[in-house]
Amino acid sequence: MIKKIKIAKALNTYLPSMLLTVLLVFTTNSVLAEETTVDEVETEVNCLGCHQETQETPIHAIWQTPHGKVFGKSNQTCVACHGPSLEHGKVPRDNSPSLSFGPKWPSKFNEQSAVCLDCHEKGNQLMWLSGVHNDEELSCLSCHNIHDRIDDVLVRLEQSETCFTCHKSVQASAHMPSSHPILEGKTTCVDCHNPHGNISEHSLNEPTVNDTCFSCHAEKRGPFLFEHAPVAEECTICHKPHGSVNASLLKARGPFLCQQCHSAAFHPSVQHDGSGLANTGQGSEFLLGKNCLNCHSQIHGSNHPSGSRLTR
Ligand code: HEC
Ligand code: HEC
Ligand code: HEC
Ligand code: HEC
Ligand code: HEC
Ligand code: HEC
Ligand code: HEC
Ligand code: HEC
Ligand code: HEC
Ligand code: HEC
User: Fold this and answer.
1) Which ligand is nearest to the CA of 140?
2) What does the DSSP assignment read for 230-255?
3) Domain Doubled CXXCH motif: where (predicted)?
4) Which protein residue has the closest C-alpha to ligand 3 atom 42?
5) Chain CA centroid to CA 273, Å
6) In this predicted model, what pLDDT tens digit does every residue of 83-129 receive, in sequence order?
7) Nearest-angstrom CA–CA distance, 312 and 297
8) Cβ < 6 Å from ligand 1: which residues?
9) Residue of minimum CA distance from atom 23 in ligand 2
10) C-alpha dihedral, 125 to 130 to 131 to 137, nearest 10°
11) Nearest-CA residue for atom 41 of ligand 5
């Protein structure tokens, strides 16, 4: 536990030493305990001696978070992220901690994330380095608040607020007449996306758009006796996942949605504009109620023996 400080001094650069810190902390606490001497204890920078809990500073809320519990109330907690900070410990006003993150000595986005990735390189964070947010020079701290007792981005109801600070167009969509219940907190961004990056397009949680949708709308998966080709291809051909002015998150309303592809189909190959509806008998029954769905109700696919036209 103390040995790491000596090693850190010897290496004289903080990054590798922090890796070691983490490594040693997790693997060799008990082994090293025997080698600890009083002298060595005194060489350790006493963060908590200066950054006291009595001080008017909010940083001590960290003890109520998982990070505060990893090492307990000790300097080791601080060192795990801020590094050994030897010079800072001697003349704090002139020297940055090894990694400050703070307002006085701003640090680079990739240096910030590197520290976190020492411990969080797996799981959801596995693809961070190849993800869009890393490409855009965001760091873990663009979303996470480490010293706060409650990290807002982990609270389902408030999570999207963090995302909305940058993703204004998504925010606008979420307010449209038809939308996923994002504002209500029933679905959140992370139900569909991994904000830490993923190999799939748009960092979706599943390999494809459709698989992502099926995770909640399983009934749309089929298999169907009669598939509707665009449905099997991609839900976003017709739907806007974040929100739409049209009902059911549709990209276009009524017959226009269908006529993007079916204008020259079985029905008269003219735009159905409704002009023939009044007593003229010009085939506009296909537009009754302005909607192809009046008859083709099984738009996502049919399992009815005679459902080939998606009418039942
Ligand atoms: C899990 C990583 C981590 C640990 C552990 C940690 N910090 Fe921090 N610290 C940060 C980050 C990140 C920031 C930047 C502000 C933020 O995101 O909360 C920060 C900011 C600070 C600041 C500047 C606050 C400001 O805004 O002026 C101080 C001072 C500080 N930490 C001291 C400490 C001390 C003392 C400890 C040990 C009790 C400690 N930190 C433990 C990551 C950590
Ligand atoms: C001798 C007292 C002292 C010790 C020991 C000390 N600090 Fe500080 N620290 C300060 C003071 C004073 C400041 C404010 C510097 C300023 O704003 O000019 C500060 C500022 C900071 C900041 C904010 C930097 C920023 O960019 O705003 C962080 C982070 C920090 N200390 C972490 C640590 C860590 C981690 C340790 C232990 C490894 C530590 N400190 C040990 C006195 C100390
Ligand atoms: C010394 C190793 C270590 C370092 C460095 C570290 N973490 Fe952690 N972190 C942990 C452990 C252990 C947990 C609790 C177990 C878990 O959830 O995986 C945790 C939990 C978390 C959580 C979940 C908190 C919660 O309330 O559930 C977040 C978010 C997180 N860390 C982000 C960060 C960020 C951002 C950084 C860099 C500023 C960082 N961590 C640095 C070890 C570390
Ligand atoms: C774009 C915002 C954003 C960024 C940037 C970000 N996170 Fe997160 N992080 C989140 C959200 C949102 C959650 C909650 C995920 C959930 O509930 O499934 C989360 C959850 C976590 C957790 C909790 C366990 C888990 O995986 O769900 C850890 C640990 C974590 N993040 C670490 C990191 C680290 C390390 C970085 C930097 C490499 C980072 N995060 C960058 C948004 C972000
Ligand atoms: C129901 C699933 C779902 C939810 C919830 C969701 N998204 Fe998406 N998101 C998608 C899909 C699918 C795409 C791909 C869009 C396409 O191909 O038209 C996408 C694309 C994106 C894009 C890139 C393209 C664009 O539209 O700018 C961003 C950024 C984005 N989402 C952010 C968010 C944020 C932020 C939230 C939370 C407020 C969120 N998403 C919630 C499914 C979702
Ligand atoms: C600090 C600003 C910022 C924050 C906060 C932020 N993002 Fe982003 N995000 C970006 C930028 C910049 C891009 C790249 C340009 C774009 O696609 O809009 C991006 C891209 C994305 C993409 C598209 C990925 C792709 O491959 O097309 C998704 C999805 C996304 N963000 C989701 C989220 C989610 C979810 C959150 C909240 C947990 C979030 N973002 C928070 C800045 C941010
Ligand atoms: C996390 C679960 C979840 C995922 C993933 C999901 N949805 Fe939803 N979806 C919902 C919920 C919840 C509703 C609202 C249901 C309600 O209000 O009865 C909904 C509603 C809808 C609606 C109807 C909206 C309306 O205004 O009536 C459509 C269309 C839809 N989703 C399409 C999609 C598509 C396309 C995808 C994939 C990009 C997707 N969903 C992914 C949970 C999800
Ligand atoms: C060819 C266009 C099209 C495609 C592609 C499509 N949908 Fe739809 N979807 C519609 C239409 C039209 C409605 C409105 C149905 C109504 O009003 O009866 C709808 C309604 C919905 C609804 C809400 C009503 C319900 O039936 O539950 C959900 C959920 C939905 N779609 C999910 C999906 C999913 C998931 C996919 C991808 C597997 C998908 N859609 C692909 C056209 C499409
Ligand atoms: C992106 C293009 C596209 C859109 C939009 C679209 N379809 Fe289709 N639809 C197709 C394709 C491709 C087929 C398969 C044609 C085939 O097998 O010959 C098909 C098949 C059909 C069939 C069955 C025809 C048959 O020969 O079995 C019906 C009925 C149908 N669509 C109705 C609709 C309706 C109603 C809408 C609007 C809600 C719609 N489609 C939207 C592309 C589309
Ligand atoms: C009044 C009911 C009704 C309405 C409204 C309607 N259809 Fe149909 N449609 C049918 C029936 C019935 C068939 C099957 C005819 C047959 O198999 O002989 C069919 C067949 C089709 C086919 C298959 C054509 C083929 O070549 O086999 C397509 C594509 C189609 N409709 C698209 C649409 C579109 C697009 C709209 C809206 C503009 C629409 N339908 C509105 C009843 C309707």
Assistant:
1) 4
2) HHHH-GGGTB-TT-BSSGGGBSS-HH
3) 181-221, 228-264
4) 119
5) 43
6) 999 999 999 999 999 999 988 999 999 999 999 999 999 999 999 99
7) 7
8) 47, 51, 59, 62, 67, 77-78, 80-82, 101-103, 141, 145-147
9) 102
10) 100
11) 189
pTM of the model: 0.90
Work out the burial of residue 85: count CB atoms within 10 Å of its CB; fewer than 13 is exposed, 13-18 middle, 19 or more buried.
buried
In the chain, % of residues over pLDDT 70: 77
Token duo for residue 150? 């409650």
Q: What is the pLDDT of residues 234-265, one digit of tens each?
A: 999 999 999 999 999 999 988 889 988 887 55
pLDDT of the residue at 287 = 53
pLDDT in tens, 50-76: 999 886 778 999 999 999 998 889 999
Task: Name 87's Cβ contacts closer than 8 Å, sequence gap at least 6.
Answer: 95
Token pair for residue 266? Answer: 């079985």
Cα separation of the two ends of the chain: 70
- Looking at residue 193, what DSSP letter applies? B
User: The tokens 């739409």 sit on which residue?
Assistant: 244
For the stretch 185-190, contacts whose Cβ atoms lie closer than 8 Å and that sit 24 or more positions apart, written own/partner, are 185/156, 185/157, 185/159, 185/160, 187/216, 188/156, 188/159, 188/160, 189/159, 189/160, 189/163, 190/159
